[in-house]
Design goal:
251 residues; alpha/beta; Rossmann fold; 11 helices; 41% helix
């Protein structure tokens, strides 16, 4: 009898221990939304965003293969996507990757932030590097250490904390990946824009100027990293876009 009682107690404890916590239940009930960060960035740039009703899953950069195309690289990243018809958010270079993923698998929605949809939205000065590829000859990461002030201006940072975060992110960026990714932007020849794209862009973006871009939503005075310093506004727009997922309404 005693032996039987102990066994039942142990079984009950095992069952209790296997039950998910309230936070785990909530997390499991949320729909995944896959975030692809920008060139030289990581999931820290998304930390101010709010995804009500969604669970952000951050796509991790992997080491590029020698001479790997952006399409082949994007295909390898799809291994991290476990949802059917996923929702993607692509920031800057991550938007180009999100476009390439959406050309290979069926997606429910792609939200681009501070990015480009095709080669015509890549500024002329990027394309000039196709014929004068100095970016392949100079150590970009080492150069950045001496011109952080230029990066702060280029990315339209507004506070010391934003500057510190960008500096930390760039310091952690792999030099080989940085050079590979910059070259992929320079030679990107995409003509195909998949369906279900929604494009958010700042009017003061200095990396991909608004004059080159046909955006669905323009954020007044938003810079390239407005995802950090316009987070509440970007979150509200993303929420509005996600509310329309599955409906016949546009972006």
């Amino acid at each position: 009898m005693t032996s039987e009682q102990i066994t039942e107690q142990q079984l009950a404890e095992l069952e209790n221990n296997s039950q998910p916590t309230a936070s785990e239940k909530l997390e499991n009930s949320l729909k995944n939304i896959y975030c692809v960060s920008g060139l030289g960035a990581d999931d820290r740039v998304f930390q101010q965003l709010e995804f009500e009703g969604y669970q952000p899953v951050h796509i991790r950069w992997v080491e590029p293969e020698p001479r790997e195309s952006i399409a082949d690289y994007a295909k390898r990243l799809t291994a991290q996507i476990k949802s059917e018809k996923p929702i993607l958010i692509g920031l800057s270079f991550g938007g180009l990757i999100a476009i390439e993923i959406a050309k290979q698998i069926e997606v429910e929605k792609v939200i681009l932030v501070s990015s480009a949809k095709n080669k015509r939205e890549i500024p002329l000065y990027f394309r000039l590097f196709r014929w004068f590829p100095v970016h392949r000859l100079i150590p970009l990461k080492s150069l950045l250490r001496f011109v952080y002030w230029l990066a702060y201006w280029f990315f339209s940072l507004e506070t010391v904390d934003e500057q510190k975060l960008l500096r930390a992110i760039l310091s952690d960026t792999d030099a080989h990946f940085l050079k590979w990714a910059v070259h992929r932007v320079v030679i990107w020849n995409n003509e195909e824009v998949p369906e279900h794209i929604c494009h958010l862009h700042g009017t003061r973006d200095r990396v991909f100027p608004i004059s080159f871009v046909n955006a669905d939503w323009q954020i007044e005075k938003g810079g390239h990293l407005m995802i950090m310093n316009r987070a509440s506004q970007i979150s509200a727009l993303i929420s509005k876009v996600l509310d329309r997922v599955g409906s016949f309404e546009g972006c």
